[in-house]
Input
Amino acid sequence: MQELDGEPALRSPELPAVLGAAGGERPVRLFEVGDAPTGLVFPTRLRPFHLAIGALFVLVAATGALLVGPADIPPGAVLAQVASRIPLLGVHSSLSATDIAVIWQLRMPRVVLGGLVGAMLAVAGASYQGVFHNDLADPYLLGVASGAGLGATIAVVYLPHLAGLPIDPLPLAAFVGAVTAVVATFALGRSGRGGRGATSLILGGVAVGAFFTAAQTFLQQQNTPVLAEVYTWILGGLSTAGWQQVLLVLPYVVIAGAALIGARRLLDVLSVGDDEASSLGVRADLVRLVVVVAATLGTAAAVSVSGLIGFVGIIVPHTVRLLAGPSYQRIVPLSVLYGAGFLILADLLARTVVSPGEIPLGVVTAFLGAPFFLVVLRRSRRLA
Output
């Protein structure tokens, strides 16, 4: 196997050993025309150094979010309280019961939920970019956002009397709406000729998204007294985060994340195109279906408890791509770490910039997203 910078370079003779597929003898160029010199290969192995940096980023973000808040608790006391919960350390905390409740019932679940949602949105965005060969793809590409928004609007308008039940109807309605939208996208995208391709699914997502958004707008227009509540959810936020929401979303994020990480090598193969992947024995349509189902379920669960937080699925994968290279064997797992840290920090900004008020989390990520695109655009122009 040829090596690049001390790491194995991905070529077609090596693909059978990795994927169990048949391959030819010529090198596989894993760049689109114009992106890189012909025949260029790149390292794919995920080094421990990359994981260590990502884990450190999450740790720093989570620590900062725990230490900062409207309650005036000394940072040292917060760290001592957290350390007191770790067995064998023997650290004792002198905080009052109120301060302990602030740390463990308000700050900690918010940090954990922010990490889970950020990780899910980032890894889903990276996976969508791989299967659809589109660097602008994000987790909402196939109608998840519009479906979740319609479901949440229905819950606010028609199910307010159920808000006191043990199971909050709003996250459930948002989840059902998101899944329904993607199912409709698949049905519409595969109804015509050549419906198994990526383009058909994207066009189906545009159509379904427009329809669901129109229905949501109609309901909002007919029920103006609840507009504020609907928009609060749509703009996204973690202000109501608790351990119940963490437990609700955790299984989906773990299962979906594991499936997407497991498919990371196949995403590298799909990056050369469906025809090339098929010649190597990889069924592009089946891989796309598995990835989309996993990403959709995870994203639907994430937005059901956080609202529609945009740009995470674009900002984080592109940042990882700039830092670690174009291989999805690196991008997908690192997106989990950097996505978690990014959203934790964004939520920290959302609740501190205008303290004691709070900016919607989706607004913060949108503010960060626009300049990011300018940076990527300028960098791409310099490399051209």
Q: What stands out?
A: Confidence is low (pLDDT under 50) at residues 1-40. The beta strands are 3-4, 7-8. The first strand starts at residue 3 and ends at 4.
